[in-house]
Amino acid sequence: MDSNIKLFFVTFAVLAISITGMAVGVILSNRKLQGSCGGLGKIIGEDCMFCEKKEECKEHPEEAQDCLKA
């Protein structure tokens, strides 16, 4: 039973270090988190209701990819 507890703590430590490393990476990259205007909604034809540039994309569909990247 003692080796199982050691294995648990080692596994937990590795997982905690990994999550902490990813969190520090996100913080240091200083990028704003944002959702995507795509995914399953795009496949079934639903619009992204949170896209700030949706009207611009509708007016100029040839430039829609550039609108969604900004």
UniProtKB/TrEMBL annotation:
Pfam family, one: NqrM
Species name: Halobacteriovorax vibrionivorans
Transmembrane stretches, start-end: 7-28
Superkingdom, taxonomy of origin: Bacteria
Keywords tagged on the record: Membrane, Transmembrane, Transmembrane helix
InterPro entries hit by this protein: NqrM
Protein name: (Na+)-NQR maturation NqrM
